[in-house]
Fold this protein.
Amino acid sequence: MSNSLKFETQSGENPVPLSHAETDALLASVKEQLDLETFDPDNHQLLKQMVECLGDTRGLVRLSFAQTLGEIGEPATPFLLEALANHPNVVVRRASAKTLTLLADPKTVPNLVHAFLNDEDTVVQGSAVGALARTGEAAVPVLLEILAAPENSEATKGHAAWALAFIGSEAKEYIYPAIASDSPEVRGAVVGAIAKVAQESPEPQAFNLLVNALTDSDANVRCEAAAVLGNLAYQPAIPNLAELLHHHDWETRKAGALALMKVGDRSAIVPLQAALSQESETAVQQVLKLAISQLERKTEADDW
């Protein structure tokens, strides 16, 4: 207990890196206090020292401190945010972001966004967007803003789209209207998020929006909609997917053929064969042949 007492009485001082033995003693002391319900959440110096220990060279020790700070909860949040924004040790910034993922506090959204968009370390960026995803609905508006901003990179928008899809059903209030966004990046990400909604709680509105997206003016959005409908094996979309086989854009025709193959219904064989007889693009011909072959094989297996 002597180590923990030292930490608790260093009020006003900046925390310093500890030896492994001191770090282990601090962790044991805090865990004991939590078990005995004697932990003082107003001991700011102790909380600062715990955050400093997120820079320990041992991964399991960092994880233990992260879990313990997660158990402490809201009192630890300001110190984690300060470390995320300003700590010179990238390991501490990474671990702070990961710990904030455990807390999933909506109030941290602005800080997490700043780290996501501005930290020089890609691991910090990824951990920050992971924490945003865990905060749920509160993060959705800003994720949509990130997707719509032309200055953001494709990688940044890809992370934001992943977070949006992770949030899933909680985001419905925002993502359903956003399918009409002027930004194709937003519409494409929303298609992926709606697909997650359709998986979690199948509802007609979600599927209708996905089917409507097959006629989007942007090829990437059309292809994404086709892909998710195929992955969802949504049979009512077969006629709409079949229409894509005659689209002027060959990537869209290819996406339609792949989706029909994944849906796996034998009724798609006829439109696929008709499309193959008219197809001039080699890459699409190959996918059409593959889709027909797979569906014929499936038909034979079902008949057997």
Remarks:
- Residues 1-12 have pLDDT under 50 and may be disordered.
- Residues 282-303 form the longest helix (22 residues).
- The radius of gyration is 26 Å.
- DSSP finds 18 helices and no strands in the chain.
